[in-house]
């Protein structure tokens, strides 16, 4: 067990949490150490270990852990489900980190559906599916609580058909008529919330619309499980499930449950058997949308994966970037290109990657359904690209591969290093695995 845990004050969408402890204070696991700023969007923060506050800075609170730790925690004090969710500091645990109390805080006036996003969208990541296989009842209980808070008439679980054991566990755990299961195809980005709404309900939402426009609320599977803990056990969000994978000494893909928030990347690799001496980069998150991290970085509420990728392949002198709204953004592709030793010859965006408003992050008009990329590939070839580096979804990548080889343009994908590290098939010409 590591000695010091750093709890970052910014772990979600919104304003940083405001410290309510001082250096030298003694804290118990589960005790609130920073609050959501009054009147602002944000989340509370709790100590994930018992110990002494060793530092309070503008960006984090450090806790020097007691040598002996227990599973006990300081319980939440609120009474109503929504207040417990807010006090617990629960946010979207699939990566976005939007405060859950806000998402559930405007109940449906009539109708409405809460959808459990159990798609486990990113390749390699397995922790959500493993948790469901072990205790699907917790997921369904969390979904029922969310439905109650949101006054939703219906609930649904969206889960890929390539996980038959988890699908059957979910179906067996459902004991009411108003919760259904939607079995999804195995394609990326099936876990994007507008893709989830499309598959469960039918409509394709415009890029500036939230699921609420279709009478839906989409909540990540682990988030629902943490809602169950907050309401039934009065446990704050202090632990995180995650997948650790890649260039490690133990099994290439491992799942860890209830890791204390603030645990370092280095500690997680040690738990997995130790990191190998040679790797290209460390990624926090999934292969598509994860970001480069360091061994000293702490696990945060939204950490779903920690990956040690394969060493970078040396690329050509000039490479073209084709950016997809569903995968790595322009800055991330530029970072990878630099690590490959390539000069960027040009940048193009998938034709469906549109800005909801000027300067906002791009979103796909219809996630996972690609109209073709020939025009963009030709533009990069004309700009002098000797190869392509792409971040495209399954369907978009298929369209790139339908033309790039004919133009003698080798194709690299932002996920290559992570997937090679675990001996998984690279994202190139892919067949969608059906339900």
Q: Could you describe the 3D structure shown?
A:
This protein is an alpha/beta fold and 435 residues long. It has four domains: 4-65, OB fold (Dihydrolipoamide Acetyltransferase, E2P) (Beta Barrel); 81-233, Rossmann fold (3-Layer(aba) Sandwich), CATH 3.40.50.11540; 239-308, Ubiquitin-like (UB roll), CATH 3.10.20; 318-421, 3-Layer(aba) Sandwich (Rossmann fold), CATH 3.40.50. The chain is 25% helix and 23% strand. It is built from twelve helices and 22 strands. The protein has helices at residues 81-88, 100-103, 127-134, 136-150, 164-173, 193-201, 221-233, 265-271, 330-339, 374-382, 394-401, 416-421, and strands spanning 4-8, 18-19, 26-27, 32-35, 45-46, 51-56, 60-65, 113-118, 154-160, 179-184, 216-220, 239-246, 253-260, 282-284, 291-293, 305-308, 318-323, 343-349, 353-354, 363-364, 388-390, 411-413. The strands form six sheets. A five-stranded mixed beta sheet has the order 13-12-16-14-15, sandwiched between helices. It has a four-stranded antiparallel beta sheet with strand order 1-7-6-3, with no helix packed on it. α5 links the parallel β9 (154-160) and β10. α3 crosses α4 and α3 crosses α5 (164-173). It is globular.
